[in-house]
Amino acid sequence: MVTLNSTEVLNTVVPETGHGNHSEDSPFLSSADAVKKTDFYDRNLALFEEELDIRPKVSSLLSRLVNYTNITQGAREHEEAENTETLRRKAPKSPNMGTLMGVYLPCLQNIFGVILFLRLTWIVGTAGIVQSFLIVLMCCSCTMLTAISMSAIATNGVVPAGGAYFMISRSLGAEFGGAVGICFYLGTTFAAAMYILGAIEIFLKYLVPQAAIFHASDHHGGDSAILNNMRVYGTICLSLMAVVVFVGVKYVNKLASLFLACVIISIVSIYAGAIKSVFQPPDFSICMLGNRTLVRDQFDVCSKTVLEGNVTVPSQLWRNFCSSGNMSSPQCDDYFNQNNVTEIQGIPGLASGIIRDNMWGDYREKGQILEKAGLPSVDVHGAVESIGLYVSADIATSFTLLVGIFFPSATGIMAGSNRSGDLKDAQKSIPIGTILAITTTTLHFRCCVHVLSCRFGDAVSKNLVVGTLSWPSPWVIVIGSFFSTVGAGLQSLTGAPRLLQAIAKDNIIPFLRVFGHGKANGEPTWALLLTGLIAELGILIASLDMVAPILSMFFLMCYLFVNLACAVQTLLRTPNWRPRFKYYHWALSFLGMSMCLALMFISSWYYAIVAMCIAGMIYKYIEYQGAEKEWGDGIRGLSLSAARYSLLRLELGPPHTKNWRPQVLVLLKLDEDLHVKYPRLLTFVSQLKAGKGLTIVGSVIQGQFLDSYGETQASEQAVKNMMEIERVKGFCQVVVASKVREGIAHLIQSCGLGGMKHNTVVMGWPYGWRQSEDPRAWKTFINTVRCTTAAHLALMVPKNVSFYPSNHERFTDGTIDVWWIVHDGGMLMLLPFLLKQHKVWRKCKMRIFTVAQMDDNSIQMKKDLATFLYQLRIEAEVEVVEMHDSDISAYTYERTLMMEQRSQMLRQMRLSSAEREREVHNYTSTNIHRITPVRPNIFVDHSEGHIELVSQTQMSSPPVADKIQMTWTKERYEAERRNRNNAPENFRELMSLKPDQSNVRRMHTAVKLNEVIVNKSHDARLVLLNMPGPPRNTDGDENYMEFLEVLTEGLERVLLVRGGGREVITIYS
C-alpha cells in the first residue's frame, strides 16, 4: 500500500480526461485571468481542485464583484464591459451623482420645455380649465404608471447605455427591443426637431422679429412666409447644433447646468408673477371690435379716432378698416361702422373671476375669428379684406389634437435611467428622482391650468403670453425659454445617436451595423449624420403643432412596451425578477399600457397606425433575419410557460383525426467527415411540412458517449447548419450508441416531449445493400421498420431521394400518382395534399390508382372511390387497375431462384468468415501481446508440424515489433483443407436449390405490380406506394429487401409509405 502525504496529493498533476470538462461562460470571471495558479493548492478544496477553472472559489467571485464597475452612459454596451480586454483598460471614473443632480433635475429639464412656454396657455385657453385638467391628468397618469414600471425594471439590475431600449430588449427580447428601440430613437430625433422649431419660433416672434427673411404680401400669405422662415432658420440652427455635438459632447454637458438654471428661473418667475397678479394685475390690455379680438401689431391706439391738438382725426385702426381717410364721407367695413372699439384687460388677475369664464372649451375651425362672449356686438358680415385684422385660428382645434400636442411636455421620464451609470446608487435614485419629478411637474401643470388661460398671443402685441405674467420682466421668460429649448435640442441630438449606436452594436438589425462605428473615442459620427438628416425632415414640416403628435406616437409606443415588459416579468415570476423597487403591480402596468394605447389613438389614429406598422415591420425583419441573441428576456419565459401549458393540454388525449398532421422524426446518416449524406431528405421534409407542426432531425453516432462528446456536438452543429440551409424549422437530436440500430430505437422511443411527440418517421433507403458484404445496413433498415410498426408510427421512405426536386425548382406540370393498394389510415391521401401546398408541387395534378382483383367490381370501385375523394374535399383523377390472375412466369421463378441462391451463398460466406474470426479471437484473448484482429487469408508452411497464419496486412507492411502470428496444429490445418475441398459440393447444392413457394408468390406480386405501376406512372413526378411490412420470420429479411427493389424498379421518384395504424383523414367537418 502506497501512502502520500497531503502536499504530495495536492501537487499531483491530474491529467485532463476530456469527459465533458469544457469551459463555461461566467459573467465576471474568465478562465485565463480569474483563477490564480495558487487557487488549486488550497488544502480545504482538494475535492474540487480539478474544477476550479470553471467553478471559481466564492472568495474569488466576491472579490471580482466588489471591484465591478458600472459603465458610464454612452461608453460601451454592458456585455462588452465583461470581456477581459475591457476589464484591463483604465477604470472609468467612479459614479458620484445623487438623486437630485442625477435624476430629479435632468427629468425636470426634459419635462419643462417648449410646450410649457409656447403652447400651454393656448391649450388651456382653447380646451378650457376642465378639459385641460383632463388632458394633464391623462398624460401625467400615463407617465406616472410608466415610471413605476420603469423603476421596477431599472432596479432589477444595471441599465447601461440605451436606457429604455436596453430595458425593453433585455426584458422582451431582441425583436421587441429592436422595434421599440427604433421608435424611441425616432421619437428622440423628432423631439430635437420640435425643440429647434420652438427655439426658432421664440427667436423670430419674440426676440428678433426683424430677422425674418420672408414677408407676407397679404394676410393670405402670412402662413407660408412664417413656415419658410422656420425652415431656413431651423436648418441653420440644426447644422450649428450638430457641429457642436460632433466637436465634443463635453461642451453640451457643461452647458446642461446653464440650461437647467434657465428653466428653474423661468418657472420661479411665472409663480412670482402669478402671486403678484392677485394683488396687482399687470397692465395688459386687449383691443376688441364688438366681440372680435383685433391683431394688436396692426395699429398703435385702440380707438377709431385720436385727438391731435383740438382736431379729431382718424386713427391707424380707422385707416385699416376704411378705404378713405375722410371722416365726412367714409367707405368703411360694415362691421367696423356698427360696432364700438373697446379695451379689456388680458390678465385681469386670479381674483377677477376669470377662472369661471374659462371653465369650458372653445374649439374652432381654421380661419375662424376669435370672439369673446358677453361683449355687445352687431352681427353683420364684414369685408373679406378685413379678415387679416382679426385674431383667427391658424389651425383647426379639437380635444384629440390638444392631447397630441401636450403629451411631449410629459415625456422626459427616461432621463434618470439613461444616466444610471453615473449614479452613486441607481437602485435608490432612479425611482425616487423620477417619481418625484413627475409629481412636481404634474402639480405645476395643474397650477398652470388655473393661472394661464389666454387663447392667442397675437392679441397681446406678439408678446409671449406666459412672459407677460412673469416677474420681474417678460424678458426672463423669453430668454429663459429660448435657452431651455436650445439646451433640450442639444440633449436630444446628443442622446439619439448614442441610442442608435447601441442598437447597431447589438447587431440585431444588420443594415444598421455601419452606425455602430464612430470616432476613435467612440463618438457616433455616422449615427449623428443620420440623426441630423431625420431631424431635418421634422424641420421641413416647420410646424410645432404638426411635429409634436409625431413624436408623441413614438414615445407612447416606447412607454407601452416598458409597461408590457414589467407586466410580463411580474406575471412570469422569473427567478431573476427581483427589483428593489417594491411598489409595482402587474395591474398597474397593464393599466399604463392601456392608457398609452388609448392616448395613441386619441391623439391621432392614423399616426398611431403608422407607428405600429413601423414597429411591426422592424419586428418581423429582426425575426426574419434571426436575431441570435440570448438575453434572458421575458418573451422566452412567456414562450416556455405557454409551451408548458400547451404540452399539459396535449397530454389529455391523442389529437383528433381532424387535427392530425405528420409530426416527423427524420433519421439522417452522416458520413465520416460528419456531413449529412443525403441532404435532399431534409428538402423533402421542408416541402412536406412547410414550417408547420413538429420536426425532429435525429442521427446516431456509433461509440461511447464519454469518448464521443465532442463529435456529438460537431455532428449536431452540422445537422443544424443543413437544416438552416434547407429551411427546416425544428429540433436536432444526436445520440451516441454502441450499435446504430440501438441508437435509432432510442430515438424512436424517446424523441419529443409529452404530447409533442413524433407520429411519423422518415428515413433514407439503404443504397448499395446488394453490393455490400456487410449486412448491417439493410438489417438496420428492416429493424427500424419493425420498430416503427411496434411503436404504431407512420413510416415514409423516399427512394432515389437524390432525384427529388430542390426548393428552388418548380414543376409546371406533371402528376403525383398514388397507388392505393391497401388501406392503412389514409396517409396516401393526405401526403399529396400536403405536398401540393408547397410551391414546388403546387402545379402538379393528383392521380389515385387502386387495384381490383378478379372478384371485384371495378366500375363500382371507381364510383365509390370518386365519392370518397369528394367527401374528403380532395381533387384527383381516379383509375381502377384490374389485375387478373395469371400463371407465375418463368422470369418470376428465375428471379426468385437467383434471390435465394444469392442469400444462401452470402450466408455460407458469412458463417465461414465468422468462424475464422472467432478462432482468431479465442487465440488472441489468451495472448499477452496486443494484436489487431484481422481476417487471415494466407497459410505458409514453415515446418513439418506447424502452420503459420499471416494476415495480408503483415505481408504488405514492413515488419514491426508486435508481429501478428499464431500456430495451428496439423489436425486443424487438415480440417480446414477438407472444408476447402468441399467447396464444389456446396456449389452443386446451390445449383440444385428449389425456391420457396411463399417467396415465389411474393416475387410474383412484386413483379406484376411493378409492371402495372411502370406502365401507368413512368412519367409521374412522384409515385406514392404502400410499403409492405417485413416478414415475421427474420430469416427472410434479405428476401424482403429484394421484394422492395423489384416493386420499385424503373421508377425515378418513389415514396414508400406505411401507416401507423390509425386514421389520419376524415370525411367529417
UniProtKB/TrEMBL annotation:
<keyword id="KW-0630">Potassium</keyword>
<dbReference type="GO" id="GO:0006884">
    <property type="term" value="P:cell volume homeostasis"/>
</dbReference>
<keyword id="KW-0769">Symport</keyword>
<protein>
    <submittedName>
        <fullName>Solute carrier family 12 member 4</fullName>
    </submittedName>
</protein>
<feature type="domain" description="SLC12A transporter C-terminal">
    <location>
        <begin position="679"/>
        <end position="797"/>
    </location>
</feature>
<keyword id="KW-0868">Chloride</keyword>
<feature type="transmembrane region" description="Helical">
    <location>
        <begin position="176"/>
        <end position="197"/>
    </location>
</feature>
<keyword id="KW-0633">Potassium transport</keyword>
<comment type="similarity">
    <text>Belongs to the SLC12A transporter family. K/Cl co-transporter subfamily.</text>
</comment>
<dbReference type="InterPro" id="IPR018491">
    <property type="entry name" value="SLC12_C"/>
</dbReference>
<feature type="transmembrane region" description="Helical">
    <location>
        <begin position="258"/>
        <end position="279"/>
    </location>
</feature>
<feature type="transmembrane region" description="Helical">
    <location>
        <begin position="584"/>
        <end position="608"/>
    </location>
</feature>
<feature type="domain" description="Amino acid permease/ SLC12A">
    <location>
        <begin position="397"/>
        <end position="665"/>
    </location>
</feature>
<dbReference type="InterPro" id="IPR004841">
    <property type="entry name" value="AA-permease/SLC12A_dom"/>
</dbReference>
<dbReference type="GO" id="GO:0055075">
    <property type="term" value="P:potassium ion homeostasis"/>
</dbReference>
<dbReference type="GO" id="GO:0007268">
    <property type="term" value="P:chemical synaptic transmission"/>
</dbReference>
<feature type="domain" description="SLC12A transporter C-terminal">
    <location>
        <begin position="810"/>
        <end position="918"/>
    </location>
</feature>
<keyword id="KW-0812">Transmembrane</keyword>
<dbReference type="GO" id="GO:0005886">
    <property type="term" value="C:plasma membrane"/>
</dbReference>
<dbReference type="InterPro" id="IPR000076">
    <property type="entry name" value="KCL_cotranspt"/>
</dbReference>
<keyword id="KW-0813">Transport</keyword>
<feature type="domain" description="SLC12A transporter C-terminal">
    <location>
        <begin position="978"/>
        <end position="1069"/>
    </location>
</feature>
<keyword id="KW-0597">Phosphoprotein</keyword>
<keyword id="KW-1003">Cell membrane</keyword>
<keyword id="KW-1133">Transmembrane helix</keyword>
<dbReference type="GO" id="GO:1990573">
    <property type="term" value="P:potassium ion import across plasma membrane"/>
</dbReference>
<feature type="transmembrane region" description="Helical">
    <location>
        <begin position="526"/>
        <end position="544"/>
    </location>
</feature>
<dbReference type="InterPro" id="IPR004842">
    <property type="entry name" value="SLC12A_fam"/>
</dbReference>
<dbReference type="Pfam" id="PF03522">
    <property type="entry name" value="SLC12"/>
</dbReference>
<feature type="domain" description="Amino acid permease/ SLC12A">
    <location>
        <begin position="103"/>
        <end position="275"/>
    </location>
</feature>
<keyword id="KW-0472">Membrane</keyword>
<feature type="transmembrane region" description="Helical">
    <location>
        <begin position="550"/>
        <end position="572"/>
    </location>
</feature>
<dbReference type="GO" id="GO:0015379">
    <property type="term" value="F:potassium:chloride symporter activity"/>
</dbReference>
<feature type="transmembrane region" description="Helical">
    <location>
        <begin position="232"/>
        <end position="252"/>
    </location>
</feature>
<keyword id="KW-0325">Glycoprotein</keyword>
<dbReference type="GO" id="GO:0045202">
    <property type="term" value="C:synapse"/>
</dbReference>
<dbReference type="GO" id="GO:0055064">
    <property type="term" value="P:chloride ion homeostasis"/>
</dbReference>
<keyword id="KW-0406">Ion transport</keyword>
<dbReference type="Pfam" id="PF00324">
    <property type="entry name" value="AA_permease"/>
</dbReference>
